[in-house]
Amino acid sequence: MSTPICAHCAKPFERRYTSMQAVCGPRCAKAKVAADKKDRARRERETDRARREAIKTLPKLKAEAKHWMHLWVRLRDKDKGCISCSEPLQGPAVGGGFDAGHYRSVGSAKHLEFDVRNIHGQCKHCNNYLAGNHVGYRAGLIERIGLASVEELERDEAPRKLSRDQVRELRDRYHDAVKTIRDGSSN
């Protein structure tokens, strides 16, 4: 008969209590029970998280995707200046130092809501008080992506109906991109 191995500390031991004894003593038994309880709680949290993710509505997923995408745009454009007026973009402040402004508004071009060509860093003054400063935005956009791309964006009327999985993919992609930028800037 072989010597059993403790299920907690992995040391060989002699069975003293029963043939079903899996641990070497009371101390390891107590630690194994605590570890099993912790592992069970972790699995339950993962299951709950997966259930909550599965029942998220499309608007909730779009809000999460928008949050991460706009944060990514702010990080991408933080050193470029406002797309509309070229003023330096302010650092973090209450409510964010600047906005992720849309060239074609989401109200008039919902299909371009998640198109990165349509979203750029914009000062709060231009975005909120000058209604997007469309003339300045177009000039800045031509400078950044070229006239042909701007005209293509203006002509784009192709409908896009994103599925939940596509929105999740967008959200996860921009979440990972934000994390990569932040990890790179902290080094």
Q: Quick gist of this model?
A:
The protein is mostly helical. It has six helices and two strands; from the N terminus they run H-H-E-E-H-H-H-H.
Describe this protein with a few key phrases.
187 residues, two-stranded antiparallel ribbon, 6 helices, 52% helix, elongated
Task: Compile the SSE list and pairings.
Blueprint: H1 26-54, H2 58-77, E1 99-102, E2 119-122, H3 124-129, H4 134-145, H5 147-155, H6 164-185
Antiparallel strand pairs: 1-2
Helix pairs in contact: 2-6, 4-5
What does this structure look like?
The chain is mostly helical. The chain folds into 2 domains: 1-55; 58-185, no CATH class. The protein has 6 helices and 2 strands; from the N terminus they run ααββαααα. It has helices at residues 26-54, 58-77, 124-129, 134-145, 147-155, 164-185, and strands spanning 99-102, 119-122. The protein has a two-stranded antiparallel sheet with strand order 1-2. The chain is elongated, with a radius of gyration of 27 Å. The model has no long low-confidence stretch (mean pLDDT 90).
Uncertain runs with pLDDT below 50, 5 residues or more?
Answer: none
Query: In which range does the helix fraction lie?
Result: 40-55%
Largest sheet strand order: 1-2
Largest sheet: 2 strands, antiparallel
